[in-house]
Structure formats: structure tokens, C-alpha cells
Amino acid sequence: MPSRKRGAKKTVKKEESLVDENTAVFKETVYNVESKPELKETPVIAINTIEQPALNETSVIETSEKKPMKKEIKVLVILVIILLIVDVLSLYLYYKPDLSEFTNFFKFKSGKVVEDSNNSNECKDGTMQDSCSKDKPYYCVDGNLLKKAATCGCPSGYKLDFQDCKKI
Fold first, then answer.
1. Cα 26 to the chain's mean position, in Å?
2. What pLDDT digit, counting tens, does each position of 18-72 carry?
3. CA atoms within 13 A of residue 56's CA, in its CB half-sphere
4. Of the N and C termini of the chain, which has fewer Cβ atoms inside 10 Å?
């Protein structure tokens, strides 16, 4: 085995050539930086098929995998974000949800505190706050008369029907 100096570089050159349709010759030349080139010839019999064309001197086999570019990924992310925004807007406009619970959490309306319109402790008919009216089955709540037959009862000639009174 020939001795090789440390640091000597090798260069390999591969060539293909066709002898006839069924025979191809592959030449592999190894160049040492400090020595003369060595030449090896290897005859190979190749069978042509319809699917695979014969080897040419200029035939080059390339294999490359395309990786998604950063620019393409950014465009996809932007398109997905735009799609989500359009979806949320369309759902909001279609269902029209009441968001006053979120915007009116502390009873603020346009920066001002919302106060009760009725500061007195009685309703329009003179009934005191949180008590039954003389006109049954009404009950005074926040200045408004509400039907509350289960609490206040019914007038004579009427019977109780949940929070309302019905004529007998």
C-alpha cells in the first residue's frame, strides 16, 4: 500500500460513457495533490427499459427537496389571521350578542355613574318601597309596581295562579 503523507488531499472525478445501448463504462479518476492520477475503468452492462432512458454523457440526476420558505410561512400566517378576524366579525354581526355585561360591569355608562331615576322610597300609587300595594297583587320594587300574587295575595273573587290572579 503506498504511503500517504499526512494532509494530502484526494479529488475524485466520476465520468459515464455509453459503449452501446446495453453497455456503459464508468470511469473513476482519483487525483492526489502530490501524486499522479490513478485511473480505474469498470464495465457495467445496463438493460434499457421503456420507463428509464439510456444513460448519456450529459445526463445529470438531481434530487432536491424544497423546504417551505420563511416568506411563504409568513404569508400563510397572515392569511390565517385575516380569516379568523373575518370569522369573528361575521359571527358577531350574525348573532348580535349583548355585550353590556362586559361594558357596564360597574354600572358606568359613557364615563358617568348611572343613578336610579326614582330617588323616593315609594311607587306612583304611594306604596312604600318593598311592600305590597293596596291594589292587589302588586308589589313595589324600585319605584315600579310588579305582579307578585304569591307574596301579596289576591283580591276577593280571584284565585292565585303563580304570580297572577285569575277570576273564579
1. 54
2. 777 777 777 777 666 554 555 555 555 554 444 444 444 444 444 445 566 888 9
3. 6
4. N
